[in-house]
Amino acid sequence: MPARSTRPVDSLDDDDYPAYTMGRAAAMLGTTPAFLRSLDEHRLITPLRSEGGHRRYSRYQLRIAARARELVDAGTPVQSACRIVILEDQLEEAQRINEELRAQAQRRTSA
């Protein structure tokens, strides 16, 4: 894996860079700061903190929060929505690993 550059522009491409304040994140999602705090309380997303202690969110975290909001808007309780999103993420990761293992096995049998 190539070493990450420390140029400021690189953080613009980093999905994990905590670029958004709570207010901006809430506005982008069309929700309230309280909703974002509830996702933190249910351990769906854990925003990084600025030196002043303010929550900062990454694009990746905002995508997760948006999925949770979709579920909540459809009538799912917040706690259940958080669990669903966590399970969806775990399933996606397991499927990715499974595909990698299948590809490795395929390469070994065709070699």
UniProtKB/TrEMBL annotation:
Domain HTH merR-type: 19-87
Gene3D superfamilies attached to this UniProt entry: 1.10.1660.10
Coiled coil: 84-111
Family annotation (CDD domains): HTH_MerR-like (cd00592)
SMART domains: HTH_MERR
Name this protein carries in UniProt: MerR family transcriptional regulator
Coiled coil in keyword set: yes
InterPro entries: DNA-bd_dom_put_sf, MerR-type_HTH_dom
Keyword annotations of the record: Coiled coil
